[in-house]
Amino acid sequence: MIKNGRSFAPLLASLFLLLCFSNAPAQRDDARFDFYARGPYRENVPRPQTTTRFDVGDFHTNYATMERVIERIAAAAPDRVRITDIGETNEHRMMHLVVITAPENLQRIDQIKAGVARLADPRTTPAGDAARIAAEMPLINFMSYTIHGNESASFEAMMQVVYQLAASNEPATLDILKNCVVLINVCSNPDGHERFVTWYNSFGTGNAEPLAGEHREPWSVWGRANHYRFDLNRDNLAATQVETRNLQRAYLDWNPQVLVDHHGQPSQYFFPPAALPVNPNLPPAQTARWLTEFGRANAAQFDARNWDYYVRDVFDLFGPFFWDSWPALNGATGMTYETDGGGTKGYNWKRDDDTIVTLRSAIAKHFIASLTTLETAARNREARLKDFYEFKRSALDEGRRERLRRIVLVAGRDPARAAELADVLLRAGIEVSVASEEFRATKAHAYAASGGTTTAAVAAGTPRTFPAGSYIIDLAQPQKRLAKALLEPETELDPVFVRDQLARFARNQRRGGNAAKEEYGFYDVTAWSLPLVFGVEAYWTEDTGAVASVQLRQSPPAQSAKDALHASGEKLLSRRMGVSGRAQVAYIIPYETNGAASLAYRLQRENFKLAVATRTLNAGGRDWPRGTMVVRVSRNPDTLHEAIGRLANESNVEVTAINSGFIETGDTSIGSENVISLKRPRIIIVADEPVSQTSYGAMWWTLERYGVDFTPMTIDNIRRANLDSYNVIIMPDGAAGRYLSAFGTSGVNTLRAWAQRGGTLVCIKGAAVFAALKEVNLTSSRLVGSDDDEQREQKTDDAADAKASPTPTPAPSPATQEAANAREQTATAARTRRQTTQTATEQQRDAQDKSEKLEGAPPDLPPIASPSARPGRVPEAVPGAIFRATLDRSTPLTYGYEDAQLPVLVDSAYFFRPSKEGTNAVVFTSENNQPLRLAGFIWPNNTERLLRGTAHIIEEPTGRGHVVLFAEDPNYRGFWRATTRLFFNSFLFQPTF
Ligand SMILES: [Zn+2]
């Protein structure tokens, strides 16, 4: 019964087949499921296949064809269906929300929307009104499809659901329409989906063999992510991407009570109840009640069809960035459904027991789960509406009495970043006001002091005065749960879950080097507090005294995706940007904002000459910190005056005109020897197979946002190119061993020689591990716990060391790529085992839903146990926690940072020994006993002990050039803003020094 994907049977023949098999009893999941068994259907409404010209699951529908499918259905069923546009993607595809409901509902749709909106604010809706609304109004269901563009069953199932709801007169379907407004989010990620289907449709043959080429997307395809290679199912935290902004706006416009996000493709189908941990800001009883209700209903349908599925297991509900937890924190029952086929499993996929799962069967499962969910929602309409109101009411109540009552963000030295953060909150429907005068709190707690908001161990608050212009988020608001989940210094993990992980850790520590290790249950990072990741000075207070303040309004929607790329909170700023006047001597660019880096780059791009003060600069009657940039009038053409005004405005920077070089105090004037001419950065970024797509993407997005050009280059071309026309090469995160195979010895030598001639090589995370490999040796630093780590205890027996010692790796040629891959999995893996093990984990996390590793695309490298690793000397990978790092404020890498400490992410086991030959620009200090951890999960007697004294960012001179190492990704997911300028500094200033 397995249908080859390339066979295009005429539609009539297919329909005949369907008729033959529609009366079959229990469906096997590889049988030809009948999508048209739930009629009678209105004959004028066209089935999707009349538009697509192929049967369900025989081919992939592209975005434009899908739009024709839903347009034709809507045109034939205007009484039930209305298509709304919710905004453009980066590649100019229009995103749609299809509204489907009974005709009598559609006629009063605005009234329904307004009525349900009243349930969302109990401050203005008394309980009696709420009960009446719940009795009268339909339930709002938000059905989301294809956030991961390569999870193709989701996309195809969506069209069948639209058709069923638009065309069927089946009583159960009519019941859904009467009791529900169904919002079909046709595709959360149109650009990624288009990349995937264009590639697969042209290449896939329906071969079920897991090693067939069609089950592995080429590097530049990777349809899971959006245009900028962001995983949109991690983006709700800071809504960096235009798709997320469009969806959040559409979502909040409707106040849904049920949301399903349709994914793929673990070994078996998954639906909730979710695994531990669950975000503690969710009301436990209500959350469990509805997840169980929907889970049971789905289970009954799946059981009846002999379909495999599971609940709990791996998919948790903890981080607020997912498209189940974010809606849940908004008051909906947020659910992730994962079907078992399609996507990278293609039309057919051979499981580990040689049975076949087909795209069509995976579509069928999503179809049944979607409809079952809607039936369950219809049945529970009034109770679920009441609970939505209750969710908001109890949230307000908690916000009035819990210890954490208010959060204050201080605009500080970088008001643009604080404004960006406020803008993120406004987009999420959170109420934010700005203080119009100074105010005082009696019990304030600094985020920088330590994490924790709920435990008794939290120290008593202290009185504190906040300046006018501070942002205030009071938690006594309907969005309290989401606000707290995004902003609290730390979100507590379920103690049962933690105990379980610690027990596994203890067992792993007792296991021998070659024994397989137990996996941990962390699905994603364990800390994300927005003030910490943005690096914005913040406090939470236990009191909420009255403050003269102005409530901020939500930013208007972006006019285009390009607009969304750049619009980032500046509308909230009251400061006037631009130039203070026409300079006689020089213009001063204070390096306080990321915009200043952008301005400096744009001026250089237009061939203007800039210099940077390496010490405190005295100019215009005041002091400017090191890193302040100077544009001398004498060194530039007259066009400077016009250009700097225009670019300062575009970059949102306040530039000061200076009319005299004479200084009354200090010793560093504009003309000083300590004001050094800057070299214009000419940047290559490695864009090729070993590179992490999300690391590359976050970099791409960040640079594009600030107008910095770069040339993406494959490794082959880097090996061939005349690199001397570039002075910066950036290697994004990627598996160290695979970087080594790809560059080979000759490639490494090319990089080294180029750096020694004056180039700056910037290595991020896995690339930094690559640089620290003994046989690469681009740095004197080594990984803690690696075989090359001299500080490791020397009790290691010689045999184990010999076994692990590096073997020279010849440069792979394309012809010997297979051999190189084999080496990669043996010799290289042995010496980089800690790293590659971790990187494989990283890539799984990056590249797939966790479950996919159970059967989906194989990980790049099998985890390899370390024969010589001994418990206590090797860091256990940290599942994304936030640590306090200390800056060396005498190096150009830390220009723009005036505080001694900085919150940074640790999301790996990559702890770097300090460089002996360079500058350790950002370190985890061992000088005092202040805890390093600010928030998130760490391993007892491992993480802090081994991290202390290591370096987070290293700059090491080599010849006339530099190698810069970042232990973690400074652009992580585009939301980690505290470290953006450290990244900018690596290419803006390093080429000069
Ligand atoms: Zn997914």
Q: What's the topology here?
A:
Elements: H1 11-21, H2 48-52, H3 63-76, E1 81-88, E2 94-100, H4 103-107, H5 109-119, H6 127-136, E3 139-145, H7 152-167, H8 171-179, E4 180-185, H9 190-203, H10 242-254, E5 258-264, E6 269-278, H11 284-304, E7 309-317, H12 325-329, E8 333-339, E9 348-350, E10 356-358, H13 359-379, H14 381-401, E11 406-409, H15 415-427, E12 433-435, E13 439-446, E14 462-466, E15 471-474, H16 480-487, H17 495-510, H18 530-534, E16 538-541, E17 549-551, H19 561-566, E18 578-579, E19 586-589, H20 594-605, E20 611-613, E21 617-619, E22 622-624, E23 629-632, H21 640-651, E24 654-658, E25 675-677, E26 683-686, H22 693-705, E27 711-713, H23 715-720, E28 728-731, H24 736-756, E29 760-764, H25 766-772, H26 798-804, H27 817-831, H28 833-847, E30 881-887, E31 901-906, E32 919-923, E33 933-935, H29 943-947, E34 951-958, E35 961-966, H30 980-988
Parallel strand pairs: 3-4, 3-5, 5-8, 6-7, 18-24, 26-27, 26-28, 28-29, 29-35
Antiparallel strand pairs: 1-2, 2-4, 9-10, 11-15, 11-16, 12-15, 12-17, 13-14, 13-16, 19-23, 19-24, 20-23, 20-25, 21-22, 30-31, 30-32, 30-33, 32-34, 34-35
Bound molecules: zinc ion.
How would you characterize the overall build of this protein?
The termini are far apart. This protein has 993 residues and is α+β, with helices and mostly antiparallel strands. It is globular. Helix 11 (284-304) crosses helix 13 (359-379), helix 20 runs antiparallel to helix 21 (640-651) and helix 20 (594-605) packs parallel to helix 30 (980-988). Strands 26, 27, 28, 29, 30, 31, 32, 33, 34 and 35 form a ten-stranded mixed β-sheet that branches. Strands 14-13-16-11-15-12-17 form a seven-stranded antiparallel β-sheet, with helices on one face. It binds zinc ion. Residues 148, 151, 263, 849 line the site of zinc ion.
